[in-house]
Amino acid sequence: MASFNSNEWRAICDKFTNAQNLTEIESRNDKENDPFRSKYKARELLREIYCSLKNFEAGEGEEEGGGESGEQRPTEQPVDGQREDLFGQGFSGDSPAGLRAARLGAVEYYLGVNHVDTEELSAGQEHLMNCMKLLERCRVSSPNVSLFIQVRNQLGILWAGRDETETAQGFLETAESIYQRYMKEDGSPPTDMTEYFAAEENLLTHQERIKRFELAYTHTMYYLAQVYKNLGQTERAATYCHTTLQRQLQLNQFTPMEWALNAATLSQYYITKGRYMEGRHCLSAATVISDLAGEVPSEAAAQENETESERREHLRQKRAEIARCWIKYCLNLLQDAKKQLEDNIGELDTDRQEELKRARRREEEEEEKGRKSALLFGSEDTFDSIASIEEKVMCLFPLDFTEARSVFLVGQNHVTQAKDYFQMDGYVTDHIEILQDHSALFRSLAFFEEDLERRCKMHKRRVDMLEPICNDLNAQYYLMIRRQLMFELAETYNEMMDLKLALANRQADTQSLDNHTIKKFNHLCSASAKYFQMFLDSLCSPEGKFPERLEEEVLRPALVARFRVARLHSRLISTSPTVQLDNLNKSLENYKYVVQYCEANPEAGAAVETELELSKEMVGLLPLKINRLNARMDSNN
């Protein structure tokens, strides 16, 4: 029987070690004009190992492994459908034939990864499929289970990169099933593929074997999260992403800032589902883990070292992005609480508020149970730090101004942090989005404020932060953003106007308003109408012509703006009949536009049902009011 002597086997092991070193270490230093130099060298060594193994196998009279190459699309079913093939037939990994097949398969695997890394995907696929065919001789066992899983991981990555998501799904789900069945039926620390070519004294410890095997499965979880996301299975994707993050912490195999960003991103999914406890936990963990990336270097150190400067900017940016996720958490929590508490005209429903407060105690009791069932991050070293951050912001809906303000202040602190990096000079769009979120935080807080004067001041803060930006933005480059700001400013002035009138009406009717109040009311009313009109003017052609047919994305905003302009003109207060008449005619003109547009385009009516109904009513009533005013003016003359 043919066999390797000790020197031959040592030479193979040395070649494998060199190939690993070239791939994992030396390749990092390859020059830009020759980026794959080290990996090409590693490939040659792997080919030499493969030839040595094949020559040995041929000397024993074994049939050659592998199979026909080709670009046919492979499919992979979950392991349950192949139970006999993978777990019950073929050579044991402990047998000489099984070990030889596994070794050849491992070399094919590494050649496949090498070709994929050097952007030769077809050749990479061929080698990976050859590995699969060699493993068909074997059943899953401790010496080869890692190879069974990792080759499927790589094929999953390969097909996902080609947007063949379902093919990738098959390979990855099979890898998952192999792991789960192996752990159930065996569970012993399996051989790592690198040990196929290691001398006795270089074999891994049980702990290291477990760590590497669990890391391979963690990669399976990570890739499946991406696959399910691409398939639109968002709940499943979130579960796998959460599991991946948890396992990375447990195995201490993660890059702190990358992990933190992934956790912060996952929080946004939980927030959209109203799962604020999980969202808060992800963000708190992201904050703690991001600190492991180190402190932001000083300016002086950054100036001395270009690489340090780049690192400094990278850390600042990523922490600012995490801060933006915190802003969204606070904003969505306030907005969802508002939906729970508002009545049919958007004001605070005090009966509903009391009802929810009575239910709060039961919710807090359930929260502790929920926390125990949730997938929590952290080890003993980090869990207390995560919990201390969680304690600073609630995850239940705020039910009064005090609770809402505590959420608002957390959000506002993160606004400051995010704006510090995403400044107007260089990050125009990001900076404005942060300002818009800040404005929305004020708007949500104002809902909980019972004092109308203080509520009005909150809206004034919104105007002060948005108005200068809106007026200074270049309309040619930032048209869509300017439209958003115009509309928000118009609505904000409108809310302030209603609040001022409500304050005045607590003391007297509109006929007895003092001149100062009337002047303030008219200013707010005119400012609101001005910004609505600016929004409408932005829809016009360069020649100033308003479009005959509105695009779908601006249909509702444009018709609402017309309706609001009509309403605002009718509310302006003036002692001059001529001015009153002019305002009423402008109001009627805009009401008519809404009615006539919806008559000409019936599908538009569904977008503005309430506004259309009121516009029709006003088109019937305003002419009578205008006629009476005209008659009074004629009689006075």
UniProtKB/TrEMBL annotation:
Residues 298-358 form a coiled coil. It is found in: Cytoplasm, Cytoskeleton. Its main location: cytoplasm. GO terms for biological process: central nervous system projection neuron axonogenesis; efferent axon development in posterior lateral line nerve; enteric nervous system development; microtubule cytoskeleton organization; neuron projection maintenance. One of its GO terms (cellular component) is cytoskeleton. Residues 59-91 are annotated as: Disordered. Keywords: Coiled coil, Cytoplasm, Cytoskeleton. Belongs to the KIF-binding protein family. This is KIF-binding protein. It comes from Oreochromis niloticus.
